[in-house]
Design a protein that fits this description.
By secondary structure, the chain is mostly helical. Helix content is 37%, strand content 0%.
Length: 27
């Protein structure tokens, strides 16, 4: 994982939507 991605992960909180949804409600 790139440092930019890590930063994104921190900004999003838990995990960015690009990787996986925060709560698999719809799925």
């Amino acid at each position: 994982m790139n440092s930019s991605q890590k930063k994104r992960l921190h900004v999003f909180g838990s995990a960015p939507v690009e990787q996986q949804p925060p709560i698999p409600s719809t799925t």
